[in-house]
Structure formats: C-alpha cells, structure tokens
Amino acid sequence: MQITEIFFDCDNTLVLSEELAFEACADLANEILEKQGIPDRYTGDQLIKDFVGQNFRGMMLSLQTKYNFQLEGGELEGYVKKEEDKVIAKLEAKALPCVGASEELEKVFASKKYGLAVVSSSALRRVQASIKKVDQDKYFEHDKVFSAASSLKKPTSKPDPAIYLHALNYVKKTAGETVAVEDSKSGALAAVRANIWTIGYVGSYNGAEMQEEMSQRLTELGVHIIMKDWSEFESCMKYIESLPPKDSTQSSL
C-alpha cells in the first residue's frame, strides 16, 4: 500500500490555537445566553471541554439544542463573523506552533513523497491566519487549505465527514492512499467516517493523564495509531504504510 496524501487538522494539531479561540468564543456564547435570559455562563476551558473540534457555527447549534432556543439565520451569521474576527486577532497576536509540528512538516515537505493539505472545521480565514502566523503556510498550496465552515456549499463541522470527502475529491485521491492527523474526537470521527487512515495526535493535551484518556477515546473511535509527540510522526506513517490495503471507495456516514 502506498500513501500519497496527508491531511492535517489545524487547531491544536499544527497550531496551538484552541485555547486562544475559545477565549473569544466564550465571550460571544455568554453574550448570546444573556440575551436569551439563560443564567449559565462559560469559560474558554469549559467550552473546550464540551465542544473541542467543532467550529463556532457547530458550537452555536449545540448550544441552541442544549438550551432550547433558536437564533435567526441573520443573527447567527452575524455572530459567526464576529467570532471569526475576534479569533483571528488573537491568533495573529499570540499563536504558536504545536511542539515539533513545523520541524516534521519541513521534513515531509522536503521529501516530496506526499501531497499535503490542511483540512479543518474552522473558517478559512482563521486557518490561513493560524498557519501564516507560525510560518507553516509555505508547506501548503493556497488551494489545499480546506474549511468545513467555508469550503462547502453547505457549511458544516466535523464530525460530519463532508469536508474530508470534499478534500479527497478535490485532490483526486482515494481514502486508502490518504492519512489524516487529528487531535479531537469530532475530527477523528470525521476522518474515520470518510474511511481515511487516521493518526490520533494527543501531544497538545496537558498532562499524561489527559493524554492517556484521549488516546483511549480516539482509539475507541477507530484511529489507527496514537502519536504523543510529533517526533513520532515518521514511525506512525511507516506503521500505516505497513498495513494491508483496505477498500477505500466507501465512507461510513
């Protein structure tokens, strides 16, 4: 079996962006809850715990379901745009690469062995701002940065596999010759549902206990190998390339 394409999630896989993003999300989520007369309030950490891996639109849909209220289309779109601007400002000021990610990207880019793409739930402007801030944009062609919030006719969010299926179609690859690197449950599930070989990265989680817990959860979802540090990336790829081929023509929606 030959792997010819690698899809990388962005937030907390390539770039340490989730904490910064959820700080901004918490402010807007609390504003919405206050307007709805709902007393609950979120911190960024609480939002991460409940919604990591989802984009803001998906998060707001989950909040509406949880608290039984409805945002009108125009109002929701206004909050989505406001969140995007707030998060991008934070990322452009403070974003850092995940430890070891840039070094491994440099190696795999120099090898010319694989096509490389970013496949994210986050808005395209946010993803582009993230990888540009940490100087990773040079590893990805401009049209190979995919966003579930921006690249699809109907915006969605992982764990919906739609963005992975779209990316596969765009780069003209099958799932069986593609590897995804994901850190979250929703992201991993999206890749697994698209029948893509998946590396579960847990290095951005704080502490050995949390990393072990996430390793177990991602494995239960169907990822093929766990990567605790980016220095393990080459060995993870070799492991997947040693596995027998599978039928990659069908996604498990």
Provide structural commentary.
- The protein is globular and about 55 Å long.
- Helix 1 (18-35) packs across helix 2 (44-51) and helix 8 packs parallel to helix 9.
- It contains 10 helices and 8 strands.
- It has a 6-stranded parallel β-sheet, with helices on both faces. Strands 2-3 form a two-stranded antiparallel sheet.
- It is α/β, with parallel strands linked by helices and 253 residues long.
- The chain starts with a strand and ends in an 11-residue tail after the last helix.
- This is HAD superfamily hydrolase.
- InterPro entries: Beta-PGM-like, HAD-like_sf, HAD-SF_hydro_IA, HAD_2, HAD_sf, PGP-like_dom2.
Summarize the structure.
Its cofactor is Mg(2+). This is HAD superfamily hydrolase. With 253 residues, the protein is an alpha/beta fold.
Please give the structural blueprint.
Elements: E1 5-8, E2 15-16, H1 18-35, H2 44-51, H3 56-67, H4 73-94, E3 96-97, H5 101-111, E4 115-120, H6 124-133, E5 145-147, H7 162-171, E6 178-182, H8 185-193, E7 197-201, H9 208-221, E8 225-227, H10 233-242
Parallel strand pairs: 1-4, 1-6, 4-5, 6-7, 7-8
Antiparallel strand pairs: 2-3
Helix pairs in contact: 1-2, 1-4, 4-6, 8-9
